[in-house]
Write a structure and sequence with these properties.
Blueprint: H1 3-23, H2 32-53, H3 61-71, H4 73-76
Length: 83
């Protein structure tokens, strides 16, 4: 799948997780805020990895760090060398 589609799906996940938290959804969808916190923790680690390994490759470090936090590996891949 292409990166644009995966970023769109990730953005949809964040919208659903925040909506579930704000509206207090019940049932299976009630777990979305907890899953969102876990994903946010993983994305913080990815931002740290970006900061250490790839910040010199970025033209706008703060924006790229924010985008890595939101989209995770799907934004981080643009800094990784291609095989």
């Amino acid at each position: 799948m292409n990166a644009f589609l995966m970023k769109a799906v990730t953005l949809l996940f964040w919208v659903l997780a925040i909506t579930a938290w704000v509206q207090g959804w019940e049932g299976l969808l009630g777990y979305l805020p907890m899953v969102g916190l876990i994903v946010a923790g993983i994305h913080v680690l990815e931002v740290l990895f970006f900061w250490v390994a790839f910040r010199k490759k970025s033209s706008n470090v703060r924006l790229d760090a924010f985008l890595v936090f939101v989209f995770g590996i799907f934004h981080l891949q643009r800094f990784m060398p291609r095989r």
